[in-house]
Amino acid sequence: MLASGSSKHNERNQNRPLALPTFPVALDSAGKPVDTLRLKENADIITPIDLQLVLKEKQQPQVNPEVQTSTTLNKEQLDIPCLNAKGVTGKPKAKSEMPPANFNNANPKSDNDDAVAMESMLSEQKKWVARDIERHSHDYSEESRIPLELQNGITSDERIQEFLDKNPIYDLDKQLWAGFEEDNRLLAEGANLRDVVYDIINAILEEWGTTLHGRRKLRRTYDLKLFHETKFSSGYSCPDFVIEARGPSFERPEQGDVGFSNIATCITIDPPGLESNLGDMFERHAVLARQIFAHQPNRRFVRTCCIDQEGIAWYHFDRSGLYENFGGFYNEEPHNFIRLILGLSSLDEEILGLDTSIRWRLDREGRKATGTVAVVDERKVSRKFKMVFVEPMFRKSSIYGTGTVVWVVEDSESGEEVLVKDSWRGDGEEWVSECENLKAARGLDGVVQMISCEEDRVQTKNFGVFREDDPECMNFIQSRMVMERYEHHLFAFSFERQLLCALRDAIAGHRNLVIKAGIIQRDVAWRNILFGKPDAKPGNRGILIDLDLALPISSIKPVCTAVGHAQFCSIATLFNAISHSKDRRRLPHDYLDDLEAGFYTTSTIMYELDGPGICRDPLPEFVSEWLGCANIGFTKNLQFKRNFILSEDPIDPKDYIAPFWSEASRNLVEKYYTFTRQMAQVKEDIRRDYSSEKAHEKLQDLLAGPAVFQNYDHVINLFDVAIMQLDSAKEKNSNSPAQGTKRKAKDALENLLGPCDANDNRARRLKLESTGEEDV
């Protein structure tokens, strides 16, 4: 058993979304992107392994394109994968099964070179799942476990016994599958485990008719490349076998005939003498599962398996975590083995872990042509929305967590494009349904508006692997929301006044949430503020989105977590994240933490962009340090923020603003910095003297109604003044610096973010957890 231990697609199909853009990311002092491996723990969208490796390949022909080093994206390549943001139209994006642009097509010198290359690439790939495995995996079970839905309903004991009685692939007298020796019940001398297992599984699939019309087909893929969902590198995997699938949830890859987009599962073989470490095999299957999730956006869970000469280990991955299980000794327990194989290859897509409320129609090439998403609203009325694009505009890549997927669809009643968002939440008191938050936000200016929702669609505890006896095993619940669609995020601004108005209205929207709905959003960042609709009136020129981490003020407790995008976390919440669980100096996340995040959002845009769609290259060293610290740990992040905000002598925040920005914006940043510094110092004083009654009184005063109104009014007024200064300068038709340096805004979206974000690493959002780092 496993060792213990740690055709080119034509352009007619305009339903495909465009290539995902690259968002700003930290640059080093030379102006180059920060090493992405250092940023791995916060990966938010599908990200690549930056390698150029080779492997012999039978199926997909290799290509030799030049490495692309352009600093801009053209219109046909650009899309904005932000929640509620409208994209642009153009050609379909290249699918992930296509070899990336910098694929190295040199011929390998030897099989050993192949092995070394593959091992190196696997090592890098595993780093992308290491965080999930470390924090959200569940212990290996030595007890034979098969999910209940595979034990009941897949097939009957009588049907299995009939197969075993008549098929020579199994010897009833010896209780052995063909290819194994009776004396030691191990692989027969000279037999190849891959061939033996292939014959067994293929016999099972043929007997139960799953191979009819090619609906399911066992494929040897150990010498084929199944390309990853990557943007810049040659990431791929080569599982020993896959079960190719046909149906409304699967589509043929653009290159070759098998890829992660049209498989039901992956199967690996652990041959005698080369048994893998249990932990290594788990990591490999987590990599495979992550890619299945990426290529099949309606996946609720993924199951895979590994077979050696004695038994079978199978793996289950869903948003609640990663599970490894012992499937039994398949010679002695053929019934369980057959049920598991039938479950992994089932013709019922629900059993495979697919959400059948999301459906596609395929074209003659087996590619997705049109699709629909069904939603049951609060009145229990089901509606189908037609997809504008057959792939989601946004999806999270990590296995554990919210698993957010956002679809652009058409509302047949209004004729408008709206969004359907699927996301998961933990079933605990620290989690609140985003549906409930959006209901509370209905009618509020400056906040995303929900049309309908389906609150509790499905729960991970019903997937057959939930362990009641594991305190670390949390049930996750999926919700589906239909929401209005808005314009692009803040980094896609077209002119200075537009940006300031959007920031102003989003902060006012945050105030509405706090004062009128009693909710704190807890995730203010440039990516979570969108420009309002083209005809938006003041109050809705900027829209605050993503309320999945929002909580009612009354339920927020001083816990060892920091919530939000790492770059924009406040000083107080970062202290919480590194504090000890018994440290009583933690402060609950409040509105001032989000106003502090608003300052970071405002300043980083003016620090990183030198006009519409123009990234500074290189960034000032101060800004590069900020972006870097935000991604390498809570302590470094906190130290930087304290030096930035709470230094004994205040810094001049205008020193790092790009030349494009007007004097009005510079003054805004300076005054917003002063306010942020004052509030952060007050909270720091409260924390340090938290045991005193005076500190508690000061905190209560800070959170009381009059102070809340006063602080919001102060910040919003800063934006109002800056906007009026811009308007005044325009009316005077003056060359005053208050107008800002004039730049051509033509094709700004073409330049938007070009190389400034290799992997969207600094835009990632985490529910940051306590690390037990040093007390601060």
Automatic annotation (TrEMBL):
Basic and acidic residues composition bias: residue spans: 759-770
InterPro entries: Kinase-like_dom_sf, Pkinase_fungal
Fungal-type protein kinase domain sequence ranges: 251-455, 469-601
Source domain of life: Eukaryota
A Pfam family annotated for this UniProt entry: Pkinase_fungal
Region (Disordered): 1-21, 89-109, 730-776
PANTHER family noted in UniProt: FUNK1 11, FUNK1 6
Name this protein carries in UniProt: Fungal-type protein kinase domain-containing protein
Species in which this protein is naturally found: Candolleomyces eurysporus
Lineage, uppermost ranks: Eukaryota, Fungi, Dikarya, Basidiomycota, Agaricomycotina
